[in-house]
Fold each of these.
Amino acid sequence: MTNLADFTADELAPILDAPGAVLKGATLADGRPGAFQFLKEMTSGAKVFREAQEHENDFVRSVAIGMRDRLREQDAAEAEAAANPASQVGVAAAAAATERAAQEGARPDPEGETARAVELAGVAVALLRARGDEKDAVAYGEWILRIAEQVAEASSSKVGGFFSKRVKVSEGEQAFIDRLTAAVSG
């Protein structure tokens, strides 16, 4: 069985970052979603993450729990920074605050985010195949694809104009899923 402790911090980063990037990429795969569509897709993605915390594969379960714990640590650090602003004095803290502000105010780049998700997923699965158990690499890749598929199916999209039909998965979402499938199939 593959363990998260088997990887260095640099190797672990894409493994923990890929699922979130796939969620974001799937949400943006057919452009910028409306508020209702975004909410439905994020809720669907969150459900897949919660399910993964009880996944039958130990490695997928440990990644999901590791992501949850990392988010809790980030939230605690942000709460500490808000409670004690003096702790955030310095050049590095100012640079980090400027970077966060720029990212929060920036409009999402659908093409960039989907490309980043595909790249991170490919890197993560390649690392697992090279350093871990093949069974864990396959389960992780299937989980990544499940995230993308569940998000894509969460809300129907219109094809064409106002009087057009609705489809469960848009062409852009399917293209993203196809690229992601190729990346995790290696």
Amino acid sequence: MNNLGVSSVFSGIAAAYPRVAGAAAAASASGPAATAATATSPIAQEVVPGAGQSGALPTNAASPSDESAADSQAEQQAQIQRQLSQVEAELLRVRQTEIRELASRDREVRTHEQAHKAVGGQYAGAVSYSYERGPDGRLYAVGGSVAIDTAPVPGDPAATLQKLQQVQRAALAPAQPSAQDIAVAAQAAQAMAQARAELATETVDASTGEDDAATVIRDRTAATADADKSLAVYRQVSAADSPAGGSASPSVQTWA
């Protein structure tokens, strides 16, 4: 085959595939260096478009599911905070209520015991209080007592009678006497009846008339009946008002 035939064939290929033919011609003319150049030619880029690109989404883009989870977590935290606020408000309310009740009890106890002390006078001892510490750290009086002397005056029924009358008034001095207060008043009434009986006996000894003796006996009987009646009333009131295990209210205590 002559060169003219090859040129004719090559010309036909070049006419059908001008770009491929051009590349082949360049490779034939330049050798290995031209072949290497064709690796980065526009033809290679067209054959493998976008080579080396992964096509993945940017890593910093948040998906809708992530945003929904974040919103749900924020709502839960807000709900927990609201519940904590409600609990704190309720605790504060309970604390303030307890403080008010303790303060009221403190005033009541101190007024009660001071009434015993004021009326009892020389026969009343020192006031004693029992305390409870409130939620604010302060001590509040919740109970109290006053020692009072109910012993008879030796050899002097008249002085004993006068003393016990004051003791009885001291026991009943508070606006709301406790069961123990009523007990002391009843004991004083009984001792007063005995003091009157002793006075009546002295009168009988000094008297020589039967009429006077009969009068003294009647007075003694009436005084004893009054004392028994007072004691019976105390027992009824004590049984009705005193809680099991004793009263926790302020009281007068006796000592001989």
